[in-house]
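Now produce a polypeptide, keeping tokens residue-aligned:
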Amino acid sequence: MHEVYLPKLGITMEEGSVFKWMKLEGEAIKAGDLLMEIETDKVTMNVEAEVSGFLRKIIVPEGQKVPVGTVIALIGEYDEPLPVSYSGTESTGETTGETTRPGEMSGQGKPMVDSPKVTPVARRMLEEHGLDVNKIKGTGAARRIVREDVRRALALRSENLHFQPPSRQIVGQAPKSPVSLASPMARRLATEKGLNLNTIPGTGPEGAVTLRDVQRAAAELAEDASIQVKADERTAGMWRVMAERMTHSFQTIPHFYLLREVDASALVDLRGRMSSIMKRDAGVPLTYSDLLVKMVAVTLRHHPSMNATWAEGSVQFNETINIGLATAVDEGLLVPVILRADQLSLREIAVCRHELTERARANKLHLKDLEGGTFTISNLGMYGVDAFNAIITSPQAGVLAVGRIADRVAAHDKQPIVRPTVFLSLACDHRVVDGARAAQFLDDLARFVEEPFRLLI
């Protein structure tokens, strides 16, 4: 029997949780199959199975935080007995809120040795229509019985009653009409809502579907849709992590902001000259983000207070300059980190940035790609944003928000001229750096943007 442990995905990771099990108990697994998604305090990561076999037991349920190295599941042969230490433990996989336990009595007075899992809505429908839960096959997650399973069973029962020979009817019991009987208003509403009348239990005369029945079915369908949106687990997971981190940062870090408009004429010229050369030699285009990463990293060398953090009641300076680059993905926001950016050439930065952003959008980042950042750049210029303020990524001391480069009217020798300019907004942790030091950093950075050819010296 192979024990599956909660893996350590990064140097600083001490605990985590299974965000989603991608396999069900009893399901066959091949080595390399996606087994689960692990949620850390930074992001959710895919984890593959190391061995082939069957997922015999899920020990740790989704959402429960446990220390790194905890046994969370067992993989073995189909009929391989579970170890004694695990065989007596009740499965902690997906739960449904049901309270039936082995040995309890079912609705038919028979002991239920292994009560099927049933969603609350499906349970209510079963009770209303007197269906035997043990005769319905579940098709939901973890093979639980969902609303559509009950509806199929009701439709099948109605067909059987409709085509039942008269000689087999129970004496004194009025024959039930097929579910397709419905009032005109019910039919019209069902058509508008795209509902199949044969799947809607009728409560009218002779089992006819009434307007109220259709309204209830439509409401249940809307409830299902709402649950489905909430169950967009990947989006909810990454977004929740991002929301929690940004909330904590904004509530605990005393932010202040500096804004400056900078002439970007030389920056546009430099990128135009070097982009085709970079594409030819390195295979990736040169972006404004690449240039900004290099300029910020070099500027941080001369302003160590902007490359520091507040910890244990004092300012602590970082030994390396690692630039995080905020990257939008479908599921939320990630900040992959370019390590020792001040020591890298523009070509090396461009290649590293391209690889990190491509992996981020393909959900293939490793936790190490997101750790160690000492300063962050958030560039929304490609989205047409002129200027904005960003939230600091804790425990860093600052984040640079960059708007789009656009032609704007500026004064030159007391005359109005049109030049490409860019707005730089610097957010700072006031515990680590004061306004004067932050202004000096922004001034040096602005001169780099205005004279970017200094990067080549």
